[in-house]
Amino acid sequence: xxxxxxxxxxxxxxxxxxxxxxxxxxxxxxxxFWARHPVDGSTRVFGDALVRGAKANQAKIDQVISQCxxxxxxxxxxxxxxxxxxxxxxxxxxxxxxxxKVAINEAxxxxxxxxxxxxxxxxxxxxxxxxxxxxxxx
Length: 138
Prior knowledge:
This protein has seven helices and no strands. By secondary structure, it is mostly helical. Helix 1 crosses helix 3 (about 40-55). It has a single domain (about 5-135), classed as N-utilizing Substance Protein B Homolog, Chain A, CATH 1.10.940. It has helices spanning about 5-20, 30-35, 40-55, 60-70, 80-95, 100-115, 120-135.
């Protein structure tokens, strides 16, 4: 497994923890979280960027997910699926250095590991629609 995949998995765990605790700001928890999930410096920078970016843009990201996940209420989605989608949508729409196919594939693979049997198909469908219908946000 590559460093970036591992970092995405750890970032998912951080977002999951924040979501379950109803926390919006990751800053107070970063030191403790990264101490429990040690990674090298550049990997941590990438992980911090994912978590902070997803949280800073969460309202817009959630709006995009809700718009493209037909017949699914965001709050009723599995917490893991919701946060995989948040990470992937952040990468799709706010980062230029990750090709869309890579962001989508990474999300699908992470869903296979952390989600249910149906998670990867669901996430693939939502992200494919987002990729086809929306433009990156600068």
